[in-house]
Amino acid sequence: MVAQTRTPRGTWIDAGLEALATGGPDAVRVDLLAKALEVTRGGFYHHFESRGVFLDALLEEWERRSTDEVLDRVEAEGGDAREKVRKAGLLTFSKELLPVDLAVRDWARRDKSAARRLRRVDNRRMEYLRALIGTFSDDAGDVEARAMLAFSLAIANHFIAADHPGLGRRQVLERATGRLLAD
After folding, report:
1. How far apart (Å, rounded) are the C-alpha atoms in residues 182 and 81?
2. Predicted local distance difference test score (pLDDT) of residue 158
3. Dihedral sign computed on CA atoms, order 162, 164, 170, 171
4. Fewer Cβ atoms within 10 A, N terminus or C terminus of the chain?
């Protein structure tokens, strides 16, 4: 008799996050995930009692990856406050995390649970930015404005399709970030 192996919970989560990133919450369907993983749906229900529980688990995992893991890595790599702000932005909106972040933002427009989770994540990100910026600016209003601008730049950059005559996108972003973090 051969023992059956179940698809690990993390595999379902990864597949769910990928589906969320590419098609939003409507694309996160058990039958589609099982087909993509080439497994039966039974393994899903071993880990998650319902699709709703699974969607909550996806939000939880997105939150963990985009806050705890990012902040732990930024702190472990060290550097001054300005360098940490730069690293946090690059990691938070990396090619792996950005598609999920954008999908959650869109989802949050229509779903209160996703909106609450997004607010918690954004508040945590802003708290971190305030703490870092507060090490080189002692004006509370300035700290708040710089944190808001830095966070807005990191998110909005992905929605702006404008050309930058004579400069590449990366150069413009580096200059903008430099201005935000200057003394």
Report:
1. 11
2. 87
3. negative
4. N
Question: What is the reported pTM?
Answer: 0.90
Task: Report the candidate in 127, 64, 114 with the shortest Cα–Cα distance to residue 92.
Answer: 64
Residue 154: CB partners within 8 Å, gap ≥ 6?
89, 92, 93
Please report, as a single letter, which amino acid is at residue 111: D
The answer to whether 21 touches 99, Cβ cutoff 8 Å, is yes
Domains contained in the chain, CATH given: 58-181 (1.10.357)
Position 116: which residue type? Answer: R
| Assigned token pair, 122 | 């954004």
Q: Is the pLDDT of residue 6 over 60?
A: yes
**Quick check: 28 and 19 in contact, CB under 8 A?**
yes
Question: Tokens 């919450």 appear where?
Answer: 25
Identify whether the C-beta of residue 139 lies closer than 8 Å to the C-beta of residue 155. no
| Mean residue pLDDT across the chain | 94
Q: What is the 8-class DSSP label of residue 27?
A: G
Q: Using an 8 Å Cβ cutoff, are 121 and 111 in contact?
A: no
DSSP 49: S
Tens of pLDDT, residue by residue over 39-83, are: 988 889 989 999 999 999 999 999 999 999 999 999 999 999 999
